[in-house]
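Project outcomes to date are best conveyed with an example. Our students and postdoctoral researchers have been running inverse folding experiments weekly, and each run begins with a structure described purely in tokens. The record below, which covers 264 residues, was selected by the lab manager from last quarter's runs and is presented without edits.
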């Protein structure tokens, strides 16, 4: 059964030939803009990615955390690739989790030809940001929790079919141990450990807080990190979307972009 499971996962993770990239990624600009602690969302190109996109109703099927020039992540990648020295751009590293591979380190350049989105936690303190990065890096080598993905999919289907299968926001989904994670849940757990909200549950309006510095106007409840999917970082009001290809450039001659001449 274990061999059959590995075979099925390998088939599902195999990249599909046809993939529509909507924007070219300028890596030089991306390297200048991205910061450790940023979440990188990816629209994958495998059958597994398509399945995740379907039950989460989102283009984004994968999430990774940018950790930058992490010594531990660099050593993990070098050992995994059996290379004594890092490849070019080795200072720009991600930590991510895949079914069949577990938690690994990888160069950001791996996603040069993918549709990606950079999500930055707004207003997070430097010390907390470092703690988030350190906690995710510490999970290198952990196994992937396939049961967590299955549980999220079943919960999504129950919601669609109105079967009343929605679980408590505080209930753990999956195998619920300290040795297995999924990509988005691993990152969510790190942010939640420093009290940073991703998509918190709102308390009823009649339980509003008097705090003037609370933009929500009411207290929040933390969802269990195993409920978090890649799209939650995109939808979260607490993460900035970082545009690096064009937005922020000193000049943008949009009329020069087209292969055919545009006539008024």
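After processing, the design step wrote out the following sequence:
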């Amino acid at each position: 059964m274990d061999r059959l499971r590995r075979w099925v996962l390998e088939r599902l993770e195999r990249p599909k030939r046809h993939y529509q990239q909507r924007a070219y990624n300028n890596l030089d600009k991306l390297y200048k803009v991205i910061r450790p602690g940023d979440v990188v969302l990816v629209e994958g190109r495998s059958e597994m990615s398509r399945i995740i996109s379907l039950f989460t109703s989102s283009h984004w099927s994968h999430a990774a955390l940018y950790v930058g020039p992490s010594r531990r992540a660099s050593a993990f990648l070098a050992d995994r690739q059996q290379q004594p020295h890092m490849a070019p751009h080795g200072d720009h590293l991600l930590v991510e989790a895949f079914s069949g591979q577990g938690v690994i380190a990888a160069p950001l350049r791996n996603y040069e030809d993918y549709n990606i989105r950079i999500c930055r936690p707004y207003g997070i303190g430097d010390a907390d940001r470092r703690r988030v990065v350190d906690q995710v890096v510490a999970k290198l080598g952990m196994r992937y929790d396939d049961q967590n993905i299955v549980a999220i999919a079943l919960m999504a289907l129950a919601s669609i079919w109105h079967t009343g299968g929605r679980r408590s926001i505080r209930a753990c989904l999956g195998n619920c141990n300290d040795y297995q994670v999924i990509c988005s849940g691993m990152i969510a757990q790190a942010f939640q450990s420093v009290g940073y909200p991703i998509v918190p549950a709102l308390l009823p309006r009649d339980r509003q807080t008097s705090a003037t510095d609370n933009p929500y106007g009411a207290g929040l409840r933390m969802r269990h990190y195993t409920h978090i999917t890649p799209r939650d970082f995109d939808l979260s009001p607490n993460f900035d979307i970082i545009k690096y290809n064009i937005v922020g450039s000193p000049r943008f001659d949009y009329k020069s972009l087209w292969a055919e001449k545009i006539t008024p």
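The chain has eight helices and ten strands. The helical segments are 2-13, 27-33, 47-56, 71-80, 126-137, 146-161, 183-193, 230-235. The training component of this project remains on track.
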